[in-house]
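Record type: monomer structure entry
Structure origin: computed from sequence
Chain ID: A
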Amino acid sequence: MGEINRVAVIGTGPSVKLFTGEQPIEFDTTIGVNDVWKYVKTNVLVVLNPEKDFTPDRLKIIKDSHPCKFFSQIVNWDYRNDFRQIRLRPGYPDLILRLKGPEYEKSYCSPFVAVQIAYREYYADEIHLFGIDMTNHPHLNGELCAKIRKHFTLLKRALAENNCQMVVHGQGILSTI
């Protein structure tokens, strides 16, 4: 049996501290979302919002980041040397989630796509989520969080069917799926 390829997907929620503290797990790749570089210098960055959606301080962190790859579906980020354009499927995965094909499934948050990138682009066997709590997110209300949780439940199931485990660190909305 070969080695396990572990990838960390990191957001800016409170449980990011679990990653930046003493970390007994070694990761082959780290994938962050949005302005995560204020906490962790990840190998990969996923930004699904246009520049105008970010406050000036958050945008500066994103612009000053230098990951190996920067994934987005928004072509306006293409001035970056590390830019890789992805395509998102129309609609949301309310019944079936497809991990194969040229397009990525979407939800209402960037980590959802980042987890798929971990699996599809970096061949993860285990995907560990840190800072993806969504307990204090300024734009996500209870209804959207319920939909996100449903989408992540489908994603976790699809990953498991493909021999990939998703491990949630912290006590956010995904901790019990």
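Annotation 1: The longest strand covers residues 6-10.
Annotation 2: The helical segments are 16-20, 56-64, 110-120, 142-161.
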